[in-house]
TrEMBL record:
Organism: Medicago truncatula
Name of the protein this chain belongs to: Myb/SANT-like domain-containing protein
UniProt domain Myb/SANT-like: residue ranges: 5-52
Origin superkingdom: Eukaryota
C-alpha cells in the first residue's frame, strides 16, 4: 500500500538531484568560476557571482557551501576534488 507513495518520493528526489546537478555543472562551466577542494566550495569574485545570479538565481545555494556531494555525482576526478576513494 505504501510502495507507490515511496516510489513517488524517490522520483521527486531524483528530479531535485538532477536539477541540482545541472545547475552546479552549468555554474562550473562558466569563466570566472573555480573549485576549491579543501573547502569544498565554488570560487569566484563577487562581481562574477553577482552577474551570474542575475540570470541563475537558483545557483545562490552554491555560493557559500558548494555542493556537498559533487564528487559522488562524478563532477570531478578524484585528484581534483580530493576524495579519499
Amino acid at each position: 500500500m505504501f510502495l507507490p507513495f515511496q516510489a513517488l518520493q524517490l522520483k521527486a528526489k531524483m528530479h531535485r538531484l538532477r536539477a541540482m546537478y545541472r545547475e552546479f555543472y552549468s555554474l562550473l562551466q562558466n569563466i570566472g568560476f573555480g573549485w576549491n577542494a579543501e573547502t569544498n566550495t565554488v570560487t569566484a569574485s563577487e562581481e562574477v557571482w553577482k552577474n551570474y545570479l542575475k540570470v541563475h538565481p537558483k545557483a545562490a545555494q552554491f555560493q557559500k557551501k558548494g555542493c556537498d556531494f559533487a564528487c559522488n555525482l562524478g563532477l570531478f576526478s578524484y585528484q581534483v576534488c580530493g576524495c579519499s576513494r
